[in-house]
Structures are given as C-alpha cells and as structure tokens.
Specification:
Strand content: under 5%
Distance between the termini: 14 Å
Number of domains: 1
Shape: elongated
C-alpha cells in the first residue's frame, strides 16, 4: 500500500516557522505542562497544593491565548498569511477538544465530590468515578493529540496542511499546490 503525501504549498521559511508556533505552543502545554510539570509537582501535593494548581492555570492561559490568536488570525488576514492562519485554526480546533476533555474531568470530579459529600458515596467509588470517567479519557485523548499535533507540526515545517482545514479555509486565488512526486 502506497502512502500518499499531502500536497505542499509554496511558502517561505519565515511562514513555515510562524506556522509551527501554534503547534509548538500546544505541545508545550500537553507535554511540558500537563505531563512534566504535573508529575513534578504531584509529590508536593500533600504539603502544598499551590504548585499543582499552577498546571490548570498555565493550561487555561495557553489554551485561551491559542483560541484568541486563532480568532485574531482569521479576522485579520493581512497580518497573517493564509498558511499561518490555517495552522492557528488547526491548533484552535485541538484546543477546543482539549478544553472539552478538561471540562469532562472537572465535571466528573464535581459529581464525585458531590456524591461523596451529599450522598455518602464511598471514597473508592468517588475516586473510581474521577479516574474512569474523567482522567482515563482525558489521558488517552492527550496522548492521541500529542501524536496528531506532532504530525501537524511536521506538516507545518514542510509546507503542508491537513485536508480538512483546506476545505474549511480554502487557499487564496492564485496559490498553486505543489503535488508530491507520483501524486
């Protein structure tokens, strides 16, 4: 089975570098913040909860900035080239998905706390609810998004875009695709 590469767009190195920024930011949030910082501060959680609480604060700041910047790029096309704007839209889509998963985690934690506090749910049951309904799907989604975002980061470095974003935000008139050899 032959692997078909996506067509590339005639973009210069400066555009490629700017198109990588939203993906590098998103990956920094997932890997650096949600994995490395969370694990490193978890050991201090029994003594001081503040370092652990820095993880969601940093995440909300990065996700909020990504959504704001993507909206700004879509509105002001003269500031960003189409290619850079399209990559901000890709990062914004994954940011919205991740926000949804974090909301599911928070909702399951709230239900578990409410069930434990108001209805006398056993501690083990409440923890299982948070772990099974909130944490497990969030962690799986995070790992899948790391793989997908790494691929999109690679595409940004090589002048490519996922096909769905090209359908949603077509390139400007006059921009010619460069088809891969044999494609």
């Amino acid at each position: 089975m032959q692997h078909r590469r996506a067509p590339s767009y005639p973009v210069d190195d400066s555009m490629r570098k700017r198109a990588k920024i939203p993906h590098e930011l998103f990956l920094t949030n997932l890997i650096g913040n949600h994995i490395l910082l969370f694990v490193s501060t978890l050991g201090m959680a029994s003594h001081n909860i503040v370092p652990v609480m820095s993880v969601p604060v940093i995440s909300v700041a990065i996700l909020g900035f990504t959504l704001w910047r993507a909206q700004r790029a879509r509105r002001a096309r003269r500031r960003d080239d189409w290619y850079v704007m399209a990559h901000w839209q890709v990062a914004a889509r994954f940011s919205r998905l991740f926000i949804g998963m974090l909301a599911l985690l928070a909702l399951s934690a709230a239900f578990a706390w409410f069930g434990y506090d108001a209805f006398g749910m056993r501690k083990e049951t409440a923890l299982a609810l948070v772990g099974g309904v909130g944490m497990l799907p969030t962690m799986i989604t995070m790992l899948v998004m790391i793989v997908i975002e790494s691929d999109v980061l690679h595409q940004a470095a090589h002048g490519r875009l996922p096909p769905w974003i090209v359908r949603r935000f077509p390139p400007p008139d006059g921009m010619e695709l460069q088809l891969p050899p044999g494609g």
